[in-house]
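Researcher: I'm preparing a figure for a lab meeting and need a structural model of a single chain. I don't have an experimental structure, so a prediction will have to do for now. The sequence is pasted below. Please return the structure as tokens so I can convert it later.
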Amino acid sequence: MPELNIPPAPAIEGARHVHSGKVRDLYELESGPYAGELLMVASDRISAFDYVLDSTIPDKGEILTRMSLWWFEQLEDLVPNHVLSTDVPEAVKGRAVIAQRLHMYPVECVARGYLTGSGLLDYQATGEICGVALPDGLVDGSRLPSAIFTPATKAELGDHDENVSYETVSRRIGPDDAAELRRLTLAIYHRADEIARGVGLILADTKLEFGARQSDLGVRAIVLADEVLTPDSSRFWAGDDWHPGKPQASYDKQIVRNWLLENWDRNSGEAPPPLPAKVVERTRARYIEAYERLTGQRF
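Model: Understood. Here is the structure written out token by token.
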């Protein structure tokens, strides 16, 4: 497992740090109306090939937070979400939310409408993705006959998620919850793809996370959590540049990956080098473009 190199999370008054991931820092609020709930802070960190880079992308955390909040609004009639408040400490204003503490499902819920990434590798090897058989003759970037649910196990930090079958998920969390996660994932994908197409974008695939909460009356609900439909969790392509048979230009950190592939040996055992200023700025511009095209708002 590579050394992730996650920097220490900054101290926030009234909050206790509980966990840091590749991008987000998680705190438990110790006082106030939301004591015991979570403060989720999106940093400007960027990761590639299972390394957190020394270089950061300015404003990335705020872009991810704003975009998730916008999407939560577009989806609120489909599924409740974990956001309780955006009234956060001044030190993290604009890039954090107060979120409800949930029992998280141990599964990455992935919807694919197009063939690419790890799904393409699975298809080339077996003709299937996560046990879902697909037609012969598909290529990188092909549109699938219909969107499919292709779950993955949530890996330890630094490891790869592993694509698994729906039956595996059903055995792990129960058939009722598995069926509901599949239904919600595909409903969210179809809604988001329709919105994206309205502004000339294609949603190739997206990864979602859900948790469960219990009401005071004992009623259990499934809740959409973490981030949603951002360039870090989804592949958006420009519709007029879509040409199956080759990798598509994505609104994500592909610029960073491409530069590293040309300037760093992934098998060297050494950490990736710092990114040049031009790569940082191009990546930042790509994230901003995705936000502005989707939301219609200026960053």
